[in-house]
Automatic annotation (TrEMBL):
<keyword id="KW-0663">Pyridoxal phosphate</keyword>
<dbReference type="InterPro" id="IPR015421">
    <property type="entry name" value="PyrdxlP-dep_Trfase_major"/>
</dbReference>
<keyword id="KW-0805">Transcription regulation</keyword>
<dbReference type="InterPro" id="IPR036390">
    <property type="entry name" value="WH_DNA-bd_sf"/>
</dbReference>
<keyword id="KW-0804">Transcription</keyword>
<dbReference type="GO" id="GO:0003677">
    <property type="term" value="F:DNA binding"/>
</dbReference>
<dbReference type="InterPro" id="IPR000524">
    <property type="entry name" value="Tscrpt_reg_HTH_GntR"/>
</dbReference>
<dbReference type="InterPro" id="IPR036388">
    <property type="entry name" value="WH-like_DNA-bd_sf"/>
</dbReference>
<dbReference type="InterPro" id="IPR051446">
    <property type="entry name" value="HTH_trans_reg/aminotransferase"/>
</dbReference>
<comment type="similarity">
    <text>In the C-terminal section; belongs to the class-I pyridoxal-phosphate-dependent aminotransferase family.</text>
</comment>
<feature type="domain" description="HTH gntR-type">
    <location>
        <begin position="32"/>
        <end position="100"/>
    </location>
</feature>
<dbReference type="InterPro" id="IPR015424">
    <property type="entry name" value="PyrdxlP-dep_Trfase"/>
</dbReference>
<protein>
    <submittedName>
        <fullName>Transcriptional regulator</fullName>
    </submittedName>
</protein>
<dbReference type="Pfam" id="PF00392">
    <property type="entry name" value="GntR"/>
</dbReference>
<keyword id="KW-0238">DNA-binding</keyword>
<dbReference type="InterPro" id="IPR004839">
    <property type="entry name" value="Aminotransferase_I/II_large"/>
</dbReference>
<dbReference type="GO" id="GO:0030170">
    <property type="term" value="F:pyridoxal phosphate binding"/>
</dbReference>
Length: 475
């Protein structure tokens, strides 16, 4: 931290900007010798390097005023600092930090977050990378600028905890047409993404110890959210038809909720059949349970008609529908949404007010413009076409080790049950390939083996090369 700066004044001379020690020194004690407390605080700033050698200290008059001390206490503290060699007084210039003083480590301990980590471009096949689109980026910049140039009145006020009405209406219109969702803008709450929506709603309607079904294998972020809320996790196997409702009833039929990804199960990529969807709705009705429907990767369907949501088939109001703009636009937006049954709106709003009050209004307005002016649909057509080309390049490079999925932004390269997919993923990483082992997403034995490979956000050529390298190490 540079505490002393210089700048040129109107006469062209350098002017010293003194540090405001009141922002660094702890509040002076009400009792005890205040000059000693001030001396100790300044000495600590010098020893830890927060006041560098040669830094000019404020005048005793100024420091006393800032810290509500007597000037005599400030003078006494400076005298002790000078006597012990931590500072030096220069006649006619002031008091400065000495050139040579002992150096100690700062009070703040080093944390795991301080460790060096890879910060370069993501490795090919890494999961969770959005498909960049330069036209959309430029357009979004223009829409943000337009919103800043002509801000709405609520831009300067705290808004609706559900989110801006304009965006909620646009989401309702889009979800009805694209996903068959039945909703009203009043049922929608704008969130910071799927995980935030899941956490927010579960906090509002579930209690620690409640049982929750999770698909097995599962989306690890959802698992972390459910576990972090103190809920009891019930692993339910996934087969070719999606989550096995009968198996779930056999091991935990009285669960309070289920989290599922029916359109494109993560990580296996299967689509839940109509038979299973109806069975899941029936189970929720009979048990008074809630279905959290994460519509994962639903926008990226490469063949066949769009799939209907479970929420649109539910006539009992048991489904919470979760969507996000992260993958389809860019994760940096941190904008998603939860579509709630009517009875849950007020409990969730009460929880929202306690957590973060409201979502940011600026990106909401720009996203509403994207949806309402037709830009979002055009963006989807472009990125869907590129994602399909990327998928094909990766599958071709894998040389028969994986088949092309009809939907989504990742695929599974299956392995034999006795394979070590974690070791293979580590070997791939050494080659600069970001494969994820399937076994780490499994909750119960026996664990499935395979490599989860993302193809969004990379060029087809580099995916083809990565696929060829993976085929070699898998062999």
């Amino acid at each position: 931290m540079q505490l002393v700066q210089t700048r040129a004044n109107s006469m062209g001379k350098n002017q010293t900007i003194l540090p405001d020690l009141s922002a660094l020194i702890p509040v002076m004690p009400e009792a005890g010798k205040r000059s000693r407390a001030l001396y100790t605080a300044i000495r600590r700033l010098i020893e830890t390097g927060q006041l560098p050698a040669g830094a000019k200290l404020p005048t005793t008059r100024d420091l006393a005023r800032r810290l509500s001390l007597s000037r005599g206490a400030a003078v006494e503290a400076y005298e002790v600092l000078v006597a012990e060699g931590f500072a030096e007084a220069r006649v006619g210039a002031g008091t400065f930090v000495a050139a040579k003083v002992p150096r100690l480590s700062p009070d703040m301990p080093k944390t795991a977050g301080d460790e060096p980590h890879y910060s370069g471009p993501p490795h090919p096949c890494t999961l969770g990378i959005a498909m960049a689109d330069e036209r959309t980026r430029q357009l979004f910049r223009q829409l943000l600028h337009r919103r800043l140039e002509r801000p709405q009145p609520n831009f300067y006020d705290y808004g609706d905890p559900r989110g801006e009405r304009e965006l909620r209406q646009a989401i309702a219109d889009y979800a009805k047409v694209a996903r068959g969702v039945r909703c009203h803008p009043g049922h929608i709450i704008v969130t910071s993404g799927i995980r935030h929506g899941l956490d927010l709603v579960m906090r509002a309607i579930l209690r620690p110890g409640d049982a929750v079904w999770l698909e097995d294998p599962c989306y690890l972020s959802a698992h972390a959210t459910v576990a972090g809320l103190g809920l009891a996790i019930v692993p339910v196997p996934v087969d070719r038809e999606g989550i096995d409702v009968a198996a779930g009833e056999a091991v935990g039929g009285k669960a309070a909720a289920v989290y599922c990804t029916p359109s494109h199960q993560f990580p296996l990529g299967v689509t839940m059949t109509m038979r299973r969807r109806l069975a899941l709705i029936d189970w929720a009705k009979r048990n008074g349970a809630w279905i959290f429907e994460d519509d994962y990767d639903s926008e990226f369907r490469f063949s066949g008609p769009p799939l209907a949501s479970i929420q649109g088939m539910d006539d009992a109001g048991r489904v919470i529908y979760l969507g996000s703009f992260s993958k389809v636009l860019f994760p940096g937006l941190r904008v998603g949404y939860a579509i709630l049954p009517e009875p849950l709106v007020e409990p969730v709003l009460a929880q929202r007010r306690q957590m973060d009050r409201q979502p940011p209004s600026l990106p909401q307005g720009a996203i509403a413009d994207l949806l309402n002016e037709g830009h979002f649909a055009a963006h989807l057509r472009r990125v869907r076409k590129r994602a399909e080309a990327c998928r094909n390049a990766l599958v071709e490079g894998l040389r028969g080790k994986a088949s092309a999925p009809e939907q989504g932004l990742h695929l599974i390269a299956g392995l034999a049950d006795d394979s070590d997919d974690e070791a293979l993923a580590a070997a791939a990483l050494k080659l600069g390939i970001g494969a994820s082992p399937l076994s780490t997403h499994c909750l119960a034995a026996p664990k499935r083996r395979g490599l989860i490979l993302g193809y969004s956000g990379f060029e087809p050529q580099e995916l083809h090369r990565a696929g060829r390298s993976l085929a070699e190490i898998m062999r």
